[in-house]
Amino acid sequence: MGEIMTIVNQKGGVGKTMTAVSLSACLRKYESKVLLVDLDPQGHSTKALGYRNRNEYSLSMKEVMICVIKNRDVDKEKLILHSHEGVDIIPANISLAGISSILEGTQCRETTLKRFLDTVKNDYDYIIIDTNPSLDNLTINALTAADKAIIPVQAEPYAIEGMADLLKTITNVQCYLNPDLTIEGILITMFDKRTNLAKKVIMDIHHSFGNYIRIFNTQIPRCIKAAESTGNGESIIKYDRKCAATKAYELLTQEVFYHGEKDSE
């Protein structure tokens, strides 16, 4: 049965998509069967794995949510795309933008995504969910469906603004919707070791959260190659195997999923 990991932070630009795509690509390198679920109307994960044109696929997350709401079956053969990196993906695009308001008037709206993922999780070792930058119904659905959550936080000023709201949301989901949900850890992204400011932000993160939330040893450096890879429709893992971000995400994969035991491979 596949483990479901959601990458969540209501702030935009913190590296959620890069983390979701990179972890998926790294897990695939270890021969794991991986499904990447794009739950962001911007569709960045979909584009990052090569599906930039909506005409390249007939079904998306919008159809998934509508089918579950209306208790209809979705054609998984048409829905699930197979990327050139071996990662399967459920795509999203701007058509998903109106779903949150539709969910508002739906019974058991928080479990809509979970009900669908329950039908496919036995086919995968890992399911990674890339969320939208909001604490709306889509994000609640992702947390309700997940076993674990990773919170990316950028090493920049005001990095921890909004963290109280996010942690309160996660606590509410744990209390009322998904008692098995755990926070796997906080991931520091966009780290520039040359600046004292970045080092201070990291100290603030450890001071504010380190006593009760795991903060990963691995830090993701700021890297221009990351933006280039997304524009090229590839994960950073494939685009540049030797760049600092690739090496960092490989270490993060070992830290999160393999507890370091893949280091020597």
Description:
The protein has 265 residues and is α/β, with parallel strands linked by helices. It has an eight-stranded mixed beta sheet, sandwiched between helices. The protein is globular and about 55 Å long. The chain has helices at residues 16-29, 44-48, 61-69, 76-79, 99-104, 112-117, 137-145, 163-176, 196-209, 224-231, 236-239, 244-258, and strands at residues 3-7, 34-39, 81-82, 88-90, 126-131, 148-154, 182-191, 215-221. A hairpin with a 5-residue loop joins strand 3 and strand 4 (88-90). 41% of the residues lie in helices and 17% in strands. It has twelve helices and eight strands. Helix 1 (16-29) crosses helix 12 (244-258).
Share of helix, binned: 40-55%
Total helical segments = 12
What portion of the residues fall into strands of 2 or more residues? 15-25%
Gap from first CA to last CA? 25 Å
Order of strands, main sheet, comes to 3-4-2-5-1-6-7-8
* Series of secondary-structure elements, N-terminal to C-terminal: EHEHHHEEHHEHEHEHEHHH
Mean residue pLDDT = 93
| Global morphology | globular
Q: What oligomeric state is this?
A: single chain
**What does the largest sheet look like?**
8 strands, mixed
Q: What structural category characterises the helix and strand content?
A: alpha/beta
Question: How big is the Rg?
Answer: 17 Å
- Low-pLDDT parts are none
How many strands?
8
